[in-house]
């Protein structure tokens, strides 16, 4: 029942994410979306690439299947001059983000003159609340994990199965993927709940934007899945989602330089999870949408009364650390291993306590190239 209006600057339209969004809207025939391009010709430091070439904007819009108007229902192109409040600054470079100084008073007087006259009231139809607020207690697995001790399978497989179970118990869970669903195993969710799976294709910036839109008004719990490296392309959109306090869940598979079996699960405005096994992957998925209190905790997975060194490892490196500890044990070197599980915030007190118990020696094993 809602209509979405997106106000875009002409300088902003140089961003590829804008055209990703227009392509997505065209493909899915979103007739409740209105894009408004404010074409004022000037950017921050110089004129924009297209300036007032309204025919080019029109042709691009039509290429994506949009109808339009100059001042359409689906796309509006506004042609105007920037800073059109006073003749001294109108359509001139050098006034972006700057105070008008001695030109302020005449500019204000000019604007006040423009807003005098008849007042027009628009009476939109009442909003229909067809998506009531979600109760977090509804988010749970439809059935517990049924894996057997010693069973081996990719963590991403467990993720897909658990995500589908969340979708079974809660019809507000929505899954998005960027054409990686057969690798991230979000395809399991798609097969179980095809009406709540959104294929965003290889356009990660737009995928994040779509997920943020799904999460607005507390009407859906979106899970965004793709390779972790590809989520980096959408870092700007993820940052802005955090500023907006969005509750999108991001799941990046194939993290690190090992292209290992681990997955990083992060909840915006909360903490990133780094599960090391099938069980912890399901646990992170279950807790991610509803709980931030379990952040800042770790698990000591190996210890003795006479440890010589503390090794901190997560995900795929935890398994390698356990193998190394077994070898070192044969040489009389006792290794304590700590799995942080959540990496931001980190459990400082737990790390310090375990480091002191291991002679103050700490080795951190991470799955990436060294830098910094």
TrEMBL record:
Q: What is its EC number?
A: 2.2.1.1
Sorted UniProt keywords: Calcium, Magnesium, Metal-binding, Thiamine pyrophosphate, Transferase
Q: Which cofactor does it need?
A: Mg(2+); Mn(2+); Ca(2+); Co(2+)
**Domain of life, per the record?**
Eukaryota
Gene Ontology molecular function terms on file: metal ion binding; thiamine pyrophosphate binding; transketolase activity
Residues in domain Transketolase-like pyrimidine-binding?
153-346
Presence of keyword Metal-binding:
yes
Entry's Gene Ontology cellular component terms = cytoplasm
Family of the protein in this entry? Belongs to the transketolase family.
> What is the protein's quaternary organization?
Homodimer.
Which protein is depicted? transketolase
What organism does the UniProt record list as the source?
A: Nematostella vectensis
């Amino acid at each position: 029942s809602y209509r979405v209006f997106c106000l875009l600057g002409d300088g902003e339209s140089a961003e590829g994410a804008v055209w990703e969004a227009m392509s997505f809207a065209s493909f899915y025939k979103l007739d409740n979306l209105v894009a408004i391009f404010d074409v004022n010709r000037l950017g921050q430091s110089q004129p924009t690439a297209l300036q007032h070439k309204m025919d080019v904007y029109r042709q691009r819009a039509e290429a994506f299947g949009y109808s339009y108007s100059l001042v359409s229902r689906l796309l509006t192109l506004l042609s105007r001059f920037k800073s059109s409040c006073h003749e001294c600054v109108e359509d001139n470079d050098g006034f972006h983000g700057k105070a008008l100084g001695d030109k302020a008073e005449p500019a204000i007087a000019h604007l006040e003159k423009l807003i005098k006259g008849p007042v027009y009231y628009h009476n939109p139809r009442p909003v229909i609340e067809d998506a009531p607020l979600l109760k977090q207690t509804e988010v749970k697995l439809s059935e517990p994990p049924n894996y057997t001790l010693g069973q081996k399978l990719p963590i991403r497989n467990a993720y897909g199965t658990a995500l589908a179970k969340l979708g079974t118990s809660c019809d507000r869970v929505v899954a998005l993927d960027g054409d990686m669903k057969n690798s991230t195993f979000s395809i399991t969710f798609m097969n179980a709940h095809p009406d709540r799976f959104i294929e965003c294709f290889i356009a990660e910036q737009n995928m994040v934007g779509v997920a943020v839109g799904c999460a607005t008004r507390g009407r859906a719990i979106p899970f965004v899945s793709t390779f972790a490296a590809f989520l980096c392309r959408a870092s700007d959109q993820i940052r802005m989602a955090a500023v907006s306090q969005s509750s999108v869940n991001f799941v990046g598979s194939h993290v690190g330089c090992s292209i290992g079996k681990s997955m990083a699960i992060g909840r915006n405005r909360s903490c990133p999870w780094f599960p090391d096994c099938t069980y912890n992957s399901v646990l992170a998925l279950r807790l991610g949408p509803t709980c931030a209190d379990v952040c800042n905790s770790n698990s000591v997975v190996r210890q003795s009364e006479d440890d010589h060194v503390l090794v901190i490892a997560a995900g795929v490196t935890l398994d390698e650390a356990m193998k190394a500890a077994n070898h070192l044990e044969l040489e009389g070197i006792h290794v304590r291993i700590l799995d942080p599980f959540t990496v931001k915030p980190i459990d400082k007190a737990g790390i310090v306590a375990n480091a002191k118990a291991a002679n103050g020696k700490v080795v951190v094993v991470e799955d990436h190239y060294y830098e910094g």
